[in-house]
Amino acid sequence: MSRTSGEHRFTGDLAQEYELITLAYPDFEAFQHQMIEGIDFSSAGTDRDVPFHLLEIGTGDGFTTTRLVQAMLEAPGAGLITSIDNDPNQLHKAQEHLREATKGGHVHLRESDALAYLQDSPDESFDVVATAFTLHNLEAGYRREVERQIFRILRPGGLFTNADKYAPRGQEQFDALAYQIERFFQAFVPRGKLEILQKWVLHNISDQSPRYAMFADETVSHLEAIGFKGVEISHRSHMQAVLRARVP
């Protein structure tokens, strides 16, 4: 399998106006908070041979990264967040949002393909792997290899958590997709954003195609087969849900 996904799904208007996504997801921040609150940063303050280290896959414009840094700094002790993204334009935006955190050495931003970075990382080198609205953009086979590599690089007791589109099955999947498309119309039509509306609708339909669809039940089975324990998907809201899984 190639070390790179070979594709950037956020280009042109989708990349330039990515922040408009919050118009169609009014609970966007609360949803990501539900993912972050499941991370125990307190181990950053314990006496240990290696520092607490969190890997974020998919920096984007730094929205989630900023909140991860805030949560880590509110915990006792110190730690490090490494955040990777394969889009230099998005990383540039993130650098602006995270200027103080990068100066303080709390976060390192890296331009890299997800699988390539994971494969180059040593075994048991991270305490947490966190990601939000990124993995559903990966082709299914590539994503499964990413999940296998996440298991390998997590330390014993480590956490993998993801706030993302975990599709249900059957009619519920299509109801959730219809709901999301309706939200895009409600958000973009009054603002005259018809061209970007078309692109986001097509993007969301593509998300549920056989190439990309990330089904909840299939994901749980795959993670358990890899060796993860306590795999759970919670906080479902239509298509969105939060996944948590641990390395024994």
From TrEMBL:
Gene3D superfamilies: Vaccinia Virus protein VP39. One of its GO terms (molecular function) is methyltransferase activity. Pfam families: Methyltransf_25. It comes from the Bacteria. Keywords: Methyltransferase, Transferase, Ubiquinone. The keyword Methyltransferase applies. Residues 55-158 form the Methyltransferase domain. The keyword DNA-binding does not apply. One of its GO terms (biological process) is methylation. PANTHER family: METHYLTRANSFERASE. This is Ubiquinone/menaquinone biosynthesis C-methylase UbiE. It comes from Alkalispirochaeta americana.
